[in-house]
What does this fold into?
Amino acid sequence: MPDTQDRRELIVAASAELFARKGIRSTTVREIADAAGILSGSLYHHFASKDDIVQEILLGFLDALTSRYAAVLDAGMDPAQALRALVLTSLQLAKERPDATALYQNELRYLRESQLFKEVEAGAVQVQRVWLDVIERGVAAGDFRADIDPRLFHRLIRDAVWLSGRGRRGDGGYSAEQLADAISAIFLDGYATHA
It folds into this structure.
């Protein structure tokens, strides 16, 4: 019989898959319990609500992302190398956690209407700040163009990254490294300053 931690992880994994496939609103507690192999009432022994499961999925995803981003920043790369590393890191995590990635990308409306939004938003702001710091550092160093707002550039590259890595096979069969190289080449060649 699985211990409590194993059961929680099973519930989280089953929930993430259901939420990614059906949406949070359309997923019932009974479906989560059935997918996890427990009774619906037993689910409340592990989580107070469906929103608590969503929170665990998303905060775990954001924690993993910020931890990996910190390793990129600690590597002391120049801005272009750091930006490519952020792209690659994001794509790798999207491949490892496709359901959490889909949930993070697709359920913003639900999150804004729930009590979860403040904590998830704080994590999302921290993620965005990492990207903007690298981009702004590149602009200040003269490596990136100053005529394009860093926030706009971040928005464009962010969307390219997350849409490229979306879903279980949303990558078109390309590896994370291949996608990172393509995205970096397209965006950085256009954003780099040229002598």
Notes: The first helix runs from residue 4 to 22.
